[in-house]
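The instructor's notes for this session suggest beginning with a concrete chain rather than abstract definitions. Hand out the sequence below and ask the class to guess, before any prediction is shown, which regions might be ordered.
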Amino acid sequence: MKRFLIGCCASLLLFSCAKERMPISEEAQKDQLVTKTEIDQHIRTVMNRDGIYDWKHAPDAILYSAAMRSDSIFAIGYQTSTADDLENNIHLIDINSPEWLNSRDKVLTLILKNEQAVNPETTLLDILPNGYPDFFPSMEVRITNPTTISALRELDEIRYLESISYVLAPDNAVERSSSGCGVSPNYNLNTSDYTNIAPGTKRSWHHATSQVPAAWNSTTGSGVTVAIIDTGLSDDQDNLGSNFNSGYSSGRFVQKYSTKYSGAWWWKSLDDPHDQCGHGTQMAGLATAPRSNDGNAVGVAYNSNLIGIRAVEDVFISSGNEKRGVRDALKLAGDRSDVKVISMSLGSPFSSGTVKDGVYYAYNRGKMILAAAGTSFSWSSGYGVIFPATMNQTVAVTGVKDAANMVKCNVCHSGSKVDFVMVMQRSASTSRNALTLALSSNQPTYVSGSSAATASVAGIAALIYASHPGASRTQVFNAMKQQASFYPGKSSNFGWGIIDANDAVNMSF
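After discussion, reveal the predicted structure:
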């Protein structure tokens, strides 16, 4: 805070000699606003063409209006005039070096000049609600003058300029705000959907479709840390707490973090890591739940370490707090040398420069980042593969049924961006899916969608890493690819297909 205030004071002195400007009236600003209906129509038109919406396609008036009709906050990614391939070098830059500070201040100078045309008393404190950037070359700014948008877009220093919180309004706002949440133990499990194994745990039926039980003869994931970026880990699920080391699972750790803030900029606070949704708990269970003796469901890599990071409220990355939360979670995991696998069973039909920066950073740190291809709710049906699974730096995964021919699960997305699939739904019943942990209780629950497939494949990746200490991400990915059902071909909807975990962990490389 002290550094922020000093910077603000210096910048205020810098602008104290600026010429007085005629304020732009509130009525003039309102005249620039596009209706929400028009904004949504534009977004859907682009999405129908491209699949994912990127704010770079937005005309100035659309971009300005989208922010004004949400929280008036824009995400700005900036760069220096000599920046070279930032996508591959973002982990190496120092934003506090003179060159990067000059670029940052050039952007802020332009914004302040334009905002003072609306209100001559505007200061940097007013346009920087979250303060100066502390690591990534990006910042959130509050803009009220529509002419600021076009002026910023003409700067070579701008990498992206986006409305950070605008979303397409769903038909059911309550459903969108809790997508993927609501997890209760299921006391009516079909007995064909699990096998009781020693020392007293349930192995989900879907493990066998990828030869996971056979792979356990070679490795169970020891020595590898999996990061689950999601809604957190439940304090009420002892299999992700005091019971994490139990039964045949031992010598490992579970750690809980939060990078998600709640509230507006003037009173926001960091959330605790406790999962109030249930989705993160389910995903962590699929990947790393212990092979315990309490009758619960075991995870694929039941001897791997786990860090659970609460970055979102639900599976839909929507608010600015969530985008920053995902970015910062990726940095946290990226900085950990023990983390080999990052699993993100979440996404959005909107591309986000904020999230991309986090993906670039973790990827450049050598992490394998798995991302869900997409799971449909009533408000999101019809989308293809969603962001960030569309990125080249992520491994996109979706779920399929146990059918003779490859058939996606009833709510799963598919498309050319998919890399792998995991069987996680019975053909005979859409309610019979993969087994995993509930928010509490030793009774498992069912979970569906590309989320379940992603976390399960993350467990397989951990098994391969554990069986090949020191292997690179490329080597592990190639093992997954070469031991998948479609290799050497690739499906236009299902990527390389279903991974044979046993063959992959026993490959020589």
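Then share the key points. Residues 24-163 form one domain. Residues 1-25, 171-178 have pLDDT under 50 and may be disordered.
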